[in-house]
Amino acid sequence: MFLLSGCSDRPALEPLSADAVVLAFGDSLTYGTGSSPDKSYPALLEKKLQRKVINAGVPGETSRGGLQRLPALLERYQPELVIICHGGNDILRRLDPVQTENNLRRMIALARHNGAQVVLLAVPEFSLFLEPAPFYTRLAEQNRVPLLENSLSEILSSNRLKSDRVHPNAEGYRQLADDIYRLLRTASRNTI
């Protein structure tokens, strides 16, 4: 379901403070396209975490646009944690994967420079098997951030969990929120 890079040397998260702000940053998968706003993964995760989760998803945005937008959000919200789910539109538009990887690497660096911890969600390549794009694993390993590797691939492989070929439905977003919550608990040694 998810990967915490490495075996015994997994990247860990510090426990979130009681008044922590979490920034869910991405494109339509973060926004909740395919369901209603109250059923997006950030809205559902906010209830599970009992902390403010900002839905900073912009449908149709590429990683280049996200990279330009992120600094203002970091300054405005001062999040303790940034969940990055970006790159899907780059993949769909067949943009250069090296540039997408570099944009995501810079997002991770920006978040950390602003004092936030980072979790990365892998988006699948839209092929026969819906495997996660390989650069997500590289980024997680190189930057030592927890990675939710296969959740979106599994959700989008199930007709029961998707609203169209690239977006979950309400049940799919519920599963994604559950998977993110489990990842956060595991990475913080169940202290969230």
Description:
The protein has 192 residues and is α/β, with parallel strands linked by helices. It has a single domain, classed as Rossmann fold, CATH 3.40.50.1110. Helices cover 43% and strands 12% of the residues. The chain contains 8 helices and 5 strands. A 5-stranded parallel sheet has the order 2-1-3-4-5, with helices on both faces. Helix 5 packs parallel to helix 6. The two termini are 19 Å apart. The N terminus is likely disordered.
What is the first-to-last residue Cα distance? 19 Å
- The residue fraction in helices comes out at 40-55%
Tell me the structural class: alpha/beta
Shape: globular
Tally of strands? 5
Q: Beta-strand percentage? A: 5-15%
Largest sheet at a glance?
5 strands, parallel
Concise account of the structure shown:
By secondary structure, this protein is of the alpha/beta class. It has helices spanning 28-31, 41-49, 63-77, 88-92, 97-113, 135-143, 151-156, 170-187; strands at 21-26, 52-57, 81-85, 117-121, 147-148. It is built from eight helices and five strands.
